[in-house]
């Protein structure tokens, strides 16, 4: 009996992963971009409503007001900066709200990111162990802050620091009565090489990031660990520069005493088609390719294919398992000068699928 309780307690910690992942995935979608074109207007504003559906969270409705602006009229080199907000509510009584900004300034010598938000998430995670197999429902209340700052060292190469804070209070359903409060306090280094040609819609070039994050005991972290993330993105212009082929590799590696809430989860940017949070582990690898078709001035479409795998998973049978996914979607141009799109993707994975509202491209 005691052994079963201990296992349930360990599984409970896994609950915290997805709530944090929701925050991260939203930030990734909202902050996608690179160096490139600058808006001719000093300020542009777009109020964007949306609806979405998730197999676990249910139907969602929300609002995303976005402002694009130039921090300095004299600076004609920096890409336009962007700020906005995100709010949503679902049929499962999940709600989430955040504000975000990405700044380019001083002739693109400096780049900064800020995000902060709060939410109440009703979700589930999967257990495949002797004595119990299936999804476990949970509720997580979370607050978070994310900061990044980078400086250009030489042409195309940036180096900087990041800080993230998250507070998560999670409670199991099914009358378990288990509740835990967890704090994630991390700092790290970021190195980027950016040779893309456009801020919000790269047509050629490459972009790679190496990110190191530490969760030290001195910052009040219960689990002392480190995370290393590497991504490489390449873009090829085709059909007289109308369309784009985009390719991406991502690797995430947990080192040290990696807790469940710090694990990597297959889904969203890496890779669409997995919305139930079933596959997660201390390490993840993913590769994908996407065709971006632009037959009309303001309307476009995408199609993608990808594969992912996890290691040191909570479910042993998932270790090294190849997880394929494929999908399609549409795009609508909202900021023509910068070619910034909004849109919706639908993707299918192994035994799973998902819908994805997008601001900007997935990578």
Can you describe what's shown?
With 363 residues, this protein is mainly beta. 8% of the residues lie in helices and 61% in strands. The protein contains one helix and 17 strands. It has one helix at 2-31; strands at residues 43-54, 58-69, 81-90, 95-105, 110-129, 132-154, 157-172, 179-194, 205-215, 225-238, 243-256, 264-265, 280-293, 299-313, 323-335, 340-349, 352-359. It has a 17-stranded antiparallel beta sheet that branches. The chain is globular, with a radius of gyration of 20 Å. The model is unreliable at 1-36 (pLDDT under 50).
* Amino- and carboxy-terminal Cα gap: 47 Å
Rg: 20 Å
Number of helices: 1
Instruction: Kindly state the percentage of residues in helix.
Output: under 10%
Largest sheet: 17 strands, antiparallel
List the SSEs and their pairings.
Elements: H1 2-31, E1 43-54, E2 58-69, E3 81-90, E4 95-105, E5 110-129, E6 132-154, E7 157-172, E8 179-194, E9 205-215, E10 225-238, E11 243-256, E12 264-265, E13 280-293, E14 299-313, E15 323-335, E16 340-349, E17 352-359
Antiparallel strand pairs: 1-2, 2-3, 3-4, 4-5, 5-6, 6-7, 7-8, 8-9, 9-10, 10-11, 11-13, 12-13, 13-14, 14-15, 15-16, 16-17
How would you summarize what this structure contains?
The chain has 1 helix and 17 strands.
List keywords for this structure.
8% helix, 61% strand
């Amino acid at each position: 009996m005691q052994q079963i309780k201990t296992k349930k307690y360990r599984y409970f910690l896994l609950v915290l992963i997805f709530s944090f992942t929701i925050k991260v995935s939203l930030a990734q979608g909202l902050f996608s971009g690179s160096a490139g074109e600058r808006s001719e207007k000093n300020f542009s504003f777009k109020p964007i409503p949306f609806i979405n559906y998730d197999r676990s969270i249910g139907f969602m409705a929300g609002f995303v007001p976005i402002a694009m602006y130039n921090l300095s009229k004299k600076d004609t080199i920096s890409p336009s900066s962007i700020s906005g907000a995100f709010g949503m509510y679902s049929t499962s009584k999940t709600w989430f709200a955040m504000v975000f900004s990405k700044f380019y300034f001083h002739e693109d010598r400096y780049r900064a990111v800020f995000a902060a938000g709060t939410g109440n998430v009703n979700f589930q995670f999967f257990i495949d162990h002797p004595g119990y197999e299936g999804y476990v429902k949970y509720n997580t209340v979370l607050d978070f802050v994310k900061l990044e700052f980078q400086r250009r060292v030489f042409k195309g190469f940036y180096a900087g620091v990041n800080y993230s804070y998250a507070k998560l209070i999670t409670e199991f359903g099914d009358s378990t009565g288990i509740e835990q409060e967890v704090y994630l306090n991390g700092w790290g280094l970021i190195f980027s090489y950016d040779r893309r040609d456009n801020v919000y819609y790269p047509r050629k070039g490459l972009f790679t990031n190496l990110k190191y994050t530490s969760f030290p005991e001195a910052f009040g972290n219960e689990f002392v660990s480190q995370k290393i993330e590497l991504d490489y993105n390449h873009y090829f212009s085709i059909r007289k520069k109308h369309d784009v082929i985009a390719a991406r590799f991502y690797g995430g590696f947990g080192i040290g005493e990696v807790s469940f809430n710090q694990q990597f989860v297959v889904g969203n940017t890496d890779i669409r088609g997995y919305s139930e949070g079933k596959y997660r582990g201390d390490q993840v690898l993913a590769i994908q390719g996407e065709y971006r078709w632009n037959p009309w001035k303001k309307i476009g479409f995408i199609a993608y294919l990808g594969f992912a795998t996890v290691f040191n998973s909570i479910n042993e049978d998932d270790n090294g398992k190849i997880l394929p996914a494929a999908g399609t979607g549409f795009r609508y141009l909202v900021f023509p000068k910068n070619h910034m799109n909004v849109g919706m993707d639908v993707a299918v994975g192994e035994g799973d699928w998902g819908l994805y509202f997008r601001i900007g491209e997935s990578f």
